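Supplementary Text 2. Reproducibility record for the structural model of the 154-residue chain.

All settings were left at their defaults, and a single model was retained for analysis rather than an ensemble. We include the record here because the model underlies the residue-level annotations in Supplementary Table 4.
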Amino acid sequence: MVAISGIEITDMNKADLPEIQAIENVVFLAPWSEQMLRRELLSPLSSCRVAKARQGQSLVVAGYLICWIYAAETHIHNLAVKQEFRRMGVGGLLLADAIQLSRKKAAEWVYLEVRRSNCAAIRLYEKFAFLELGVRKSYYRESGEDALVLGRQI
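Retained model, structure tokens:
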């Protein structure tokens, strides 16, 4: 568990899914279903991490990251931060945690796709030394938007 600035990063569990689903529904045009999220929790390839912040007496999900680590590569599938926790470093903490976990599992590269229009996310990835490796034309079916393929060596 990582705890920095009141944010704890831990493994995701089933009890987190309702809050994660609520974030998915707001952040993504084509959100993953609860069934898809449950499958990720069971997959041996998947690493599902959650950032929690204290609100009053309870911990709430501030953000989460889902990635696959296999064949010396990490592929980040989802990284989302709840609106009220944006610009507080939550995304950076989750990304740093994924890179650290990738190192432990001997991954050599981390890859992801990001909407060409998602300037805030692209700036975050650039801070972590991700480079543009290519473009996937019309990658996002719901909008037809291109995805930038980003990667970095570990």
